[in-house]
Amino acid sequence: MPIDYAKAGSDMMFPDRTRPRQWVLLWALCTAMGAAVVVLLWPTGRPAQGPQFWFAILAAPQIVFALVLGWFRHSYESAYLAALYHNQHREEYLHRLVSRSQVPLHIIASSHCVPSPDLSLVDVLHPGKVQLAARPVRMGADLVRHSPLPEWDEELNVSKQEGADATVLDRFDVLLEKLLNPVLDTLVALHRHGGRYAPEIRLINGTSATAKDRLQQLRRVLDANGLTDLDALVVDTTSIQSLLLADEWLDREPSTPLLLLATQLHEFPPKESAEAGAALLMVPDSLALPSDVHSVGRLHRPVTCPLSALTEGFAEALRAGSTSPSAIKRLWIAGVESDADAAVARGLADAGLTQLSDPGSQHHLDRILGHAGAAAGWIAVCGAIESEDTGPQLVLTEGGDMQLAVVYSVARKLESDVNV
């Protein structure tokens, strides 16, 4: 679950010290008032002299002053020590929370499918190469501005000729194959190590209505590639939102590698939508990478915040990503409505990320590809991983609340670029 720093509470204020001048005034008051009270209360029948009289006149007020001083000092020391220990424990607790928030998932392989037959993902997302266009929908004759994946008729025809069941084989099967093929070697390498290195698979699906069918299709693709014993589940977006699956995985005990598959296909595409898919094979930081497996990037713990609190969200995401505002050079935005542009700009300025206000530093996936639904945020992560920028990059997506995460890439071009 997201790190809740509010549980640490706030700093306890230290008590104000009493100034020496105030103590001098209190001593003078006790001395004068004490002497006056003794004179007024001294029995009229007793002479105003002798040890008892002078003790009452001189010593008794000093004893009263000492008792008052001791009581104030005791109260001050108690309040001071309470604040000191509270703040020390709070700092230790916050340090543990920050350390926990900064543990990343190492991405060891990634792939994607987007509506582009001849361009890599980074090239597709280059400003000006808009993939959205008015096209006929698959089921009907209406024209809708969207960007679909190919029909893959050739792949489906080959499968039918090889005896596949035409009633269940569809574009989703082909999409899974295309997402799995680039990460398959790394997946098999982890699988060979067994034990805690055996990956678990989570397929993010847009609706729970098709979850059972999607799981069967996923199992069929895994079985065809000799991965019959891997644990696989379908997660619909109503139970967990976009990037928060990574947050959930970071809290799992015991930790295991995760193959995340996020797909979006449409029979009746909404306006400004896109069909796409992403696959990321990730290993928690607590697991040492085998010698034959190498990291291609890191995904740090995502954070959530309402649109009105983006400034705090940016700050928390940077803290989780162990970076500073000036180090961020790219912002990947996916699944965020254009109505939020003004709030995003204000949040960037207030968080000290003014360099990201430059249009050249922002990649708006929805305006180029279209809204990729359940896959939108993960396509953005793939874009950050497959870019040539090795510094920290920021991903912003929406799933109810705004979600932000810091992503690091390595200084090499991945071989897992998928062109469909």
Describe the structure.
39% of the residues lie in helices and 18% in strands. With 420 residues, it is an alpha/beta fold. It folds into 2 domains: 97 residues, no CATH class; 305 residues, Thiolase/Chalcone synthase (Peroxisomal Thiolase, Chain A, domain 1, 3-Layer(aba) Sandwich). The strands form 2 sheets. Strands 1, 4, 5, 6, 8, 9, 10, 11, 12, 13 and 14 form an 11-stranded mixed β-sheet that branches. Strands 2-3-7 form a 3-stranded mixed β-sheet, with no helix packed on it. A hairpin with a 1-residue loop joins strand 13 and strand 14.
Features:
39% helix; alpha/beta; 420 residues; elongated; 14 strands; eleven-stranded mixed β-sheet
**Which range best describes the helical content: under 10%, 10-25%, 25-40%, 40-55%, 55-70% or over 70%?**
25-40%
- Structural class call reads alpha/beta
Q: Using the coordinates shown, work out and report the CATH topology of the largest domain.
A: Peroxisomal Thiolase, Chain A, domain 1
From the N-terminal CA to the C-terminal CA, the straight-line distance is 35 Å
Overall domain count: 2
Calculate the mean pLDDT score and round it: 83
Spell out the helices and strands N to C: HHEHEEHHHEHEHEEEEEHEHEHHEE
| Total helical elements | 12
| β-strand amount | 15-25%
Largest sheet: 11 strands, mixed
* Stretches with pLDDT under 50, minimum 5 residues: 163-168, 413-420
In total, the number of strands is: 14
CATH superfamily of the largest domain: Thiolase/Chalcone synthase
CATH architecture call of the largest domain: 3-Layer(aba) Sandwich
What top-tier CATH class of the largest domain fits best? Answer: Alpha Beta
Q: How much is the radius of gyration in Å?
A: 33 Å
